[in-house]
Design goal:
globular; eight-stranded mixed sheet; Fumarylacetoacetate hydrolase, domain 2; alpha+beta; 13 strands
């Protein structure tokens, strides 16, 4: 099968939410090919690019997905929800639920002669948000696949629930953000933001420079969510999940 068939199948699965019963072609041969497939799906799906997610910024997530580094995936305006929203999923979907620290940007971080530094990237932050990402791989093996499929499959994102924004923090505060997770009112998990690539400010900086290397860049008004900071966990249809963060507030979702 051609790369066009893979692109068509992944786009259709993203739009429908349905898991693919079989592979639409061979696995991408490289991360560059995987990102090219992701880009083709993103630019033809008909949705509005609202920003980016960073997958596998924590060692726990990398272990779960059998990879050793982060990767980007698009966030779509059509799949971003406010705090307390009801996010629909299908019975066949995964509902891996990931509490994350997210940012919105006050200005572009476009290409230049040298990489952006952490301090420069933080100067471009408009607001900081508590968030919950719902992850759903659409390929047959789910989380038991090769990382190239995860990248091709849009970083596996299904939806992002974005809590209210607060003013930027001091650089030293980001890695120290902690959170507490409850499911249906029962306390379940805790996390710390340093689990995401050493801190969300470092993950954001990685993405700013990684996108430039791929011919893209972070844009004013864009949303970036920086990766799970708790254990990786599944939820069920009907679950109510609340994530309470110190310093940046609370966010919840009804599945």
């Amino acid at each position: 099968m051609s790369q066009a068939s893979i692109i068509d199948a992944l786009r259709a699965a993203r739009l429908s939410g349905e898991k693919l019963a079989s592979y639409p072609g061979p696995a991408p041969a490289s991360m560059a090919e995987a990102f090219a497939i992701q880009t083709a799906v993103r630019t033809t799906i008909g949705w509005t690019l609202a920003g980016w997610k960073i997958g596998c910024t924590s060692e726990r997530a990398q272990k779960a997905l059998h990879t050793d580094g982060p990767f980007p995936g698009p966030l779509y305006r059509e799949r971003i929800y406010g705090a307390g929203a009801h996010v629909e999923t299908l019975a066949s979907n995964s509902r891996t639920t990931e509490p994350e620290v997210a940012f919105t940007l006050a200005r572009d971080l476009s290409a230049r002669d040298k990489p952006w530094t952490v301090d420069e990237v933080l100067e471009a932050v408009a607001t900081v948000h508590p968030s919950i990402e719902i992850v759903n791989p659409r390929l047959p093996k789910g989380f038991n696949d090769v990382v190239e499929w995860y990248v091709a499959d849009g970083g596996l994102s299904h939806a992002l629930v974005l809590g209210p924004g607060v003013k930027p923090l001091a650089r030293s505060d980001y890695a120290r953000i902690t959170n507490r997770i409850s499911i249906n009112g029962i306390s379940k998990y805790t996390g710390i933001a340093s689990n995401a690539l050493g801190g969300p400010e470092l993950a954001l900086t990685w993405l700013a420079n990684s996108l430039i290397a791929s011919g893209l860049f972070l844009r004013e008004g864009g949303v970036v969510t920086t990766g799970v900071i708790t254990d990786v966990f599944e939820t069920q249809i009907g679950d109510f999940v609340k994530a309470s963060y110190d310093l940046i507030g609370d966010v919840s979702v009804q599945l």
